Amino acid sequence: MAIVGLNLNKAKPYLSMISLQFGFAGMYVITMVSLQRGMNHYILAVYRHLVATIVIAPFALVLERKIRPKLTLPIFLRILVLGFLEPVVDQNLYYLGMKNTTATLASATVNVIPAITFVMALIFRLERVNIKKVRSIAKIIGTVIMVPGAVIMTLYKGPAINS
């Protein structure tokens, strides 16, 4: 019995990632159907973040009540900037891309987000790169591979299907 529990603890990160990918796939299908049936991408972004707030806010209020830092002006401004960038810019551009282009392009742009985030973190000095650490080397290699890979993915049309 202890062996099963130990193996389950080791498998939790992998199971979490698999569950997350299924969640993304489900969200992608719902989004594509909604956009194809005429829903405005601005409204879809608002609904998505409204549902996320309703689901996650109670957990944050209860579980992090005593460990939250005080809301100072610099923290509030950071939250404001992040709140504008992620839902407004990121989600609306993603939905607009899904509505007006192919699924391949939307998938490629989503996969480039971690690379862009890493580059922006370097620019704003939120991330430090130490070439002697494997973690830093992996981030650099991932960024170097991801961007050209996404460009190739968007340009590749795939084999022609005779109909």
Automatic annotation (TrEMBL):
The chain crosses the membrane at residues 14-35, 41-63, 75-97, 103-124, 136-156. Belongs to the drug/metabolite transporter (DMT) superfamily. Plant drug/metabolite exporter (P-DME) (TC 2.A.7.4) family. GO terms for molecular function: transmembrane transporter activity. It comes from the Eukaryota. The keyword Coiled coil does not apply. It is found in: Membrane. Keywords: Membrane, Transmembrane, Transmembrane helix. It is a multi-pass membrane protein. GO terms for cellular component: membrane. Residues 24-147 form the EamA domain. This is WAT1-related protein.
